[in-house]
Amino acid sequence: MKDTILGLVGVGRIGVMHANNIAALNGMLHPQNINVQLRLTDVAADHAHAVAGGLGAKFLPSVDALLESGIDGLLIATGTGTHPDLIRAGVDAGVPVFCEKPVAMNVADALPVLEYIKANRGTVQIGHQRRFDAGYLEAKRAFEAGELGWIHSLRAVTCDMTPPPVDFLATSGGLFRDCSVHDFDILRWLTGRDIVEVYAKGSNKGDPAIGQVGDVDTALAVVTFDDGTLGSVVASRYNGAGHDVRLEIQGSAGSLMVGLDENAALASAEAGVAFPSGEPHRTFAERFDQAYRSEMAAFVELVLGQRDNPCTPEDAVAASRVADAAQESLETGVPVRVAAAVTI
User: Fold this and answer.
1) Would you state the pLDDT for residue 33?
2) Among residues 43, 41, 42, 30, which one has the least CA distance to residue 2?
3) Which residues make beta-bridge pairs with 69?
4) Checking CA distances to 31, which of 75, 219, 267, 298 falls within 20 to 30 Å?
5) How is the chain split into domains, by residue range?
6) Integer distance in angstroms from the first to the last C-alpha of the chain?
7) What superfamily in CATH does domain 132-283+319-337 come from?
8) What is the pLDDT of residue 34?
9) Which parts of the chain sit beneath pLDDT 70?
10) 136 φ, ψ to 5°?
11) pTM value?
């Protein structure tokens, strides 16, 4: 049996989720004679040591020690500000890297990282887990098969049930960069088209502290694609009905809704309609549980050379360009053209 050793930096909420999903991979991969081992580190050493002990993983005291221990792949689940240096460290170590989105706090900071990855022939997968969700995959299949005809509009929704801590929001880059960037990515991925203009508005009706750190708790962006197709992207931190992530795709021949199932965080106002009757998801981790598992399996396959990169840094930065434009539109009150990608 071949051992594949993954190193994880960062064991906060999403890092612990990845660690658990990695631990569950054994016996699920093809071929099944692959054994995945996990090593991890975090500046919160006591917490990281406890997480490692609970998973049968190995704790290492530093990133350098982790990289020097002979890992086959590096996973980065730390704060956004640390991503550029950790990506470079993984590339320097000569191992494939998985990094939670985004590449950097903004596109300007991300471009030197893209240059570094290319110059050093690195392999970096960015964490946009919706690309692995069954509903989005089916929508992409139906669109590419021509079952929807030509698309006249798309409506994306991402709403948290409750906001994250204000100290996180103070460093997140704003609602569009932190939250809606997933919608911008999936819209580009599904349609195969670029978003060229954004017009954004936002409001604050919840905790005043969110506004005090320069963010909004609810936002809407009208997006225009390069072929003239229109879309809307809505985000909120206060969706009391539950965690709500949906995408409505309307075409000349048919329409599809991603996220419309028994756990959808909505109710019908029509008489006699009991759908949906299930318990709504409360967090993104529940909504995308299987997608996150598939994402980790895909990274192992990337490490083993069994698949192409499912989300390149260039893909992620393209979505970040849209998020940056949305943030600029929010601040200026006028439509903003999305900056064109620079060939590196």
Assistant:
1) 66
2) 30
3) none
4) 75
5) 2-130+292-313, 132-283+319-337
6) 40
7) Dihydrodipicolinate Reductase; domain 2 (3.30.360.10)
8) 78
9) 1, 27-33, 342-344
10) -65, -40
11) 0.94
Q: Look up residue 274 and give its amino acid.
A: A
C-alpha angle 8/11/13, rounded to 5°?
A: 130
| The three-state (H, E, C) secondary structure of the chain, written as one string | CEEEEEEEECCCHHHHHHHHHHHCCCCCCCCCCEEEEEEEECCCHHHHHHHHHHHCCEECCCHHHHHCCCCCEEEECCCHHHHHHHHHHHHHCCCCEEEECCCCCCHHHHHHHHHHHHHCCCCEEEECHHHHCHHHHHHHHHHHCCCCCCEEEEEEEEECCCCCCHHHHCCCCCHHHHHHHHHHHHHHHHHCCCEEEEEEEEECCCCHHHHHCCCCCEEEEEEEECCCCEEEEEEECCCCCCCEEEEEEEECCCEEEECCCCCCCCCCCCCCCCCCCCCCCCCHHHHCHHHHHHHHHHHHHHHCCCCCCCCCHHHHHHHHHHHHHHHHHHHHCCCEECCCCCCC
Decide yes or no: CATH 3.30.410.40 for domain 2-130+292-313: no
- Cα 168 to Cα 28, 243, 266: the distances in Å are 35, 19, 27
Sheet holding 34-41, edge to edge: 58-59, 34-41, 2-9, 73-76, 97-100, 124-127
Phi, psi angle pair for 303, to nearest 5°: -60, -40
Query: What CA–CA distance (Å, rounded) separates 8 from 157?
Result: 31
**Residue 315 CB partners (closer than 8 Å, separation 6+):** 126, 128, 185, 188, 189
| Non-local CB neighbours of 241 within 8 Å, separated by 6+ positions | 161, 265, 266, 267, 280
17 is written with which tokens?
């989720």
